[in-house]
Amino acid sequence: MANVYHTPALLVPCMEGLQIKKNGIYVDVTFGGGGHSREILNRLGENGRLIAFDQDLDALQNVIQDKRFTFVRSNFRFLSNFLKYHEADQVDGILADLGVSFHHFDEAERGFSFRFDGALDMRMNQKAQLTAAEVLNTYSEEKLADLLFYYGELSNARKLASVIVKARADKPFSQIGDLVSLTEPFLGKDKQKKDLARLFQAIRIEVNHEMDALKAMLQQTLTVLKPGGRLVVLTYHSLEDRLVKNFMKSGNFEGKVEQDFFGNRKSPFRLVNNKVIVPDDAEIEANPRSRSAKLRIAEKIENEQ
Length: 305
What we know:
globular
């Protein structure tokens, strides 16, 4: 039996954003528990298609038995190649829910949460080589400081990196508890949990190359989305949201909108919602995971050369 291990955030706005055509081809690049995919299939006709991506082995137990459904066990950074392989070069809509599910946070052995002790793993793809422990034990102090500052937005990143490097000289990191007990004294008491969450976020992003993968996937939407196709993206932290916002506005990650000879804006997308969509109080109460969700929707308006 399928294990849908989280309620999808902003489910109805996501579906409305996709503007699902009965016989269209859609892609869920973050399959997870399958909640969004099931709703897409509910709205598709018998000739519609849904292709879903997930690199996590756990997602296999949620695969949907439906002739319209194709599951790809891979990172969404390989979007274009797999769509070609499955004879879906161009599609009508792409959905990305970039949040880490409660399922991952609740499994101590996966190492995503500071709430439990367990191995410092944090790999989304269990076959990948790089783990959180390897990052902490092998990265230079400067590289650690940079990733904690840029991916965790921690103001004391350099101090934390220094403490980590000194500690690992005596005993290499292997367990979550070791990292938490070492860093807690250097985090503000009034925001200790928030800073721990940022610390773990930074390491997780590095382990899974999340920002690089997101950029690669977004760039590929320029060629795989049909004109009029919809790009629907849920983000949960400012780094992702900034990238997605800039890309939808301009087609690049700097947010620089080009103009033609006459001064008209040139962008491959039209923003469907100029103001970001966030959950209301009722949804947050029913689904706390959605609290930090931000939904952005864009429509492809031209083919890139």
